Amino acid sequence: MSLETLILAAGKGTRMKSKLPKVLHKVCGKPMLQHVIDAAKGAGSSREVVVIGSGAELVEQTISGVEFVLQKEQLGTGHAVLSAKKSFAESKGTILILCGDTPLLTSKLLKNFVAAHKSSHCAATVLTAAMPDPTGYGRIICEDDGTFKKIVEEKDATPEIKKIRETNAGCYCFDVEKLFNALDKIGNDNAQGEYYLPDVLTIFKNAGEKIGIFTAEYADETIGINTRIQLVAADKSLRMRKERELMNNGVTIVDPNTTFIDTDVKIGQDTIIYPNTYLEGKTVIGEDCKIGPDVRFVNMTVGDNVTAHFSYCHDAEIYNDVTLGPYVHIRPGTKISDGVKIGNFVEIKNSNIGEGSKLPHLQYIGDSDVGKGVNIGCGTVTCNYDGKNKHRTKIGNNAFIGCNTNLVAPVNVGDGAYIAAGSTITKDVPKNNLAVARSRQTNIVNWKDKRK
Ligand code: UD1
Ligand code: CA
Fold first, then answer.
1. Chain segment 25-76, per-residue pLDDT in tens
2. 426 vs 100: CA distance, rounded Å
3. Which ligand is nearest to the CA of 168?
4. Is there an atom of ligand 1 within 6 Å of 195 CB?
5. Minimal CB count within 10 Å: which of 117, 254, 325, 439?
6. Which ligand sits nearest to residue 14's alpha carbon?
7. Which residues contact 263 (CB under 8 A, 6 or more apart)?
8. Can 391 be counted among the known catalytic residues?
9. Pairing between strand 124-130 and 166-175?
């Protein structure tokens, strides 16, 4: 059965004290709203409508694959749901409502929550949690028989109610038609002068509807982010979750406390991650690699059996059996083929490096196509920029570039060609030729004696 989801993300996020809309703040490398959307999709949601307001334009630009509705004025969570009424005019059955600031929700929890609601035949079910510190959350008040009575917000709570640890997670399943019929009836007579969504539950109850309570097994999964301190706590928690998942799948993480792996990163079996390593964005790493210490990979695709230490690589591809570092910078648009060795202060940008080639020390290679089995000597520089345009350098298979060579692009070095150390190459070097492009050495006999 299809499931429709409404996500509330229009709030100002006042407590974040930020120019960025709260729901775009990242947790484990991904905007918190995106985490919520992904959790809903993973739980079988087939349509997500997101209510936006504060920073609406930026949210729309950043998040894709969902529908948006605008809540012009942020008058509370109940008002936010009401602003999406038209989007659900044709809907029937269950609607899942989530907040955009609860990024630790898991698909598994939401799946179980929705399943429990559907089998209970309640008009609404609220997700709750036993929070170690419930401060800031709405509290669940139950009748003597344990059934739902009402939700009281922190700001409306008496000291007695504040002691209750069972909190409202801000996630609900509703019968969609009953929800929108009741929403018009909620008021804003409360401490914040807002239209509270939880008040719909009271209206349901007064109308004799059954309301279910579903308590999350792990309270941590329901935490809401209102402040930067909570943001960091959520980030830590999600990173630990990610690292545990990787370790359970056969990845060694030598020191999880100093390793930072974003949610969507994938790592193969028997790869070892050493300390101070940052694996970010859409990075994918194969099997049997040794990554770190001190490596930062952003949106990298890396094959099997790759070794990298003390290096920064972004938006590039590395094939199998490659060695990187120390102090390598691989920049966007670079493809490094099998068995390449790159070491000691080398920068490569927008270039292809062929199988088995060696760039062992102090090179800058930009806008270049380097063939197979090429040896590039220490200190070689491609002069790819003439101050106006970028030009390409081509180096054929098995060429040998002597130390301290300048390759002034556009220029081609043929297969098997040799370049003498210290040359500045401005003309093409044909296949198997030796190019010498430096002034000849002169030795002046007894020069020291003559000087006296
Ligand atoms: C809300 C709940 C509280 C619950 C907590 C769980 C209400 C009244 N309170 O409190 O019971 O324990 O979440 O984390 O619902 N939003 C809008 N438009 C608005 C106001 C809010 O879209 O006019 C969105 C926000 O962007 C946010 C979500 O709704 O993603 C929750 O709003 P927030 O202000 O954070 O509510 P809490 O005070 O945390
Ligand atoms: Ca919140």
1. 999 999 999 999 999 999 999 999 999 999 999 999 999 999 999 999 999 9
2. 58
3. 1
4. no
5. 439
6. 1
7. 28, 29, 30, 35, 238, 242
8. no
9. antiparallel
Sign of CA dihedral 120, 135, 185, 46: negative
pLDDT digits (tens, 9 = 90+) for 339-384: 999 999 999 999 999 999 999 999 999 999 999 999 999 999 999 9
Q: Which atom of ligand 1 is nearest to the CA of 170?
A: 6
Number of residues that this document lists for the chain: 452
Find the mean pLDDT for residues 392-400. Answer: 98
Q: Tell me the one-letter amino acid at 416.
A: G
Note the pTM of the prediction, 2 decimals: 0.93
Enumerate the β-bridge partners of residue 253. Answer: 273
Closest Cα partner for 392 from 371, 367, 413?
367
Contact 75, 183 (CB under 8 A): no
Cis? peptide before 326, omega within 30° of 0: yes
The atom of ligand 1 lying closest to the CA of 196 is 8
E strand segments, 337-437: 341-342, 346-349, 352-353, 358-359, 364-366, 368-370, 375-376, 381-383, 393-395, 400-401, 406-408, 411-413, 418-419, 424-425, 434-435
Q: How many CB atoms within 10 Å of residue 219?
A: 20
From residue 128, give the alpha-carbon distance in Å to each of 56, 92, 204: 29, 25, 18
- In terms of phi and psi (left: phi > 0; alpha: psi -120 to 50; beta: otherwise), the region of 213 is beta
pLDDT digits (tens, 9 = 90+) for 68-109: 999 999 999 999 999 999 999 999 999 999 999 999 999 999
DSSP run (H or E) holding 9: strand 3-9
